[in-house]
Amino acid sequence: xxxxxxxxxxxxxxxxxxxxxxxxxxxxxxxxxxxxxxxxxxxxxxxxxxxxxxxxxxxxxxxxxxxxxxxxxxxxxxxxxxxxxxxxxxxxxxxxxxxxxxxxxxxxxxxxxxxxxxxxxxxxxxxxxxxxxxxxxxxxxxxxxxxxxxxxxxxxxxxxxxxxxxxxxxxxxxxxxxxxxxxxxxxxxxxxxxxxxxxxxxxxxxxxxxxxxxxxxxxxxxxxxxxxxxxxxxxxxx
Length: 238
What we know:
The chain has 6 helices and 5 strands, in the order αβαββααβαβα.
């Protein structure tokens, strides 16, 4: 067991290492603007703010819908080095033969995302890629499925790393972003992995028993607010 001084040194050593695209001091500050309904733009936001924002968030659905691609070109008008904060939302598409969103994310589908990110990076932008956020909720097709979620995360990350030129590898970072654990396990959501209107949430009512084993972190046989809402979905430090 580590003694207290050694433990503190270990923690300090860990916290001193910067993550990719993490600034050596301060924070990255930006916004997710309503560029459609409100006609807001990064330039207008910076004018209101009084200085240049560090990043701007945009969302991309997978499979990619060309008509819904984000207007990242609006950031160019700021004449700044603002980072693109890209949230990737895997969406179930009923036109596909695969019945689960995970199976719809084929190599070509993920390849389209990689090509898009390559374009952003080659255009001079750093990119923080936020993959399938709020995976511990129950309102998206990929939620509360830790086994398949982690595999999906790693597949997407590996594809991006392999597809980005080595010279630009330092321009891309990945962000794991769960929802707040308040109210977990968020009963009643569209994609809750349990038999509808059957409580308590146990292995017997779980649609995916292997996932339930991971989610039942205190091993009491019931998924409840007493379980850890984060660790089952963590894809790892790498």
